[in-house]
Amino acid sequence: MDSPAESNPTEPDSTTADEIFLAFVDAVNEHDLAALGNLMTGDHVFIDSLGNRVEGAAATEGGWRDYLELCPDYWIEAADVFVDDAMVLAAGQAGGTIDGVEWQTPAAWKAIVRDGQVAQWQVFADNAPVYEILNRRG
User: Within a domain: residue 74?
Assistant: First the structure.
């Protein structure tokens, strides 16, 4: 019999959608692009709060890289997490620093989990604080 720390490769992954979601949140907060890449399906879709879509894990990973360069201390906090089968909804806040100016805003996320990875990550947030900072650039 396997010990609890061992896994049997013939058994299906029993990781739950909320565990995958929280691992994705941790990867974002740790700015771990490799972990984010491993947590995304190949056909991953990222949808921002304006409805813009980025399709494919490679393109999305590039987007995360660019955003984390813009906001090097970006963080998200999913305070309330709700799970319905493969769909995870969460509410909380996001924030960071851009051009030396701190910002924070309420935010929510929707994730669709498939086969132990995130197939879709959608953000709902008022990005006015970010736009105000970026508009100061001229």
Answer: yes
DSSP letters for the chain = ---TT---TTSPP---HHHHHHHHHHHHHTT-HHHHHHHEEEEEEEE-TT--EEESHHHHHHHHHHHHHHSTT-EEEEEEEEEETTEEEEEEEEEEEETTEEEEEEEEEEEEEETTEEEEEEEEE--HHHHHHHHTT-
Please tell me the pTM assigned to this model: 0.86
Confidence label for 137 from pLDDT (cuts 50, 70 and 90)? confident
Give the pairing of strands 101-114 and 87-98: antiparallel
Overall domain count for the chain: 1
For residue range 28-67, what is the model confidence (pLDDT) as tens digits? 999 999 999 999 999 999 999 999 999 999 999 999 999 9
CATH code at position 118: 3.10.450.50
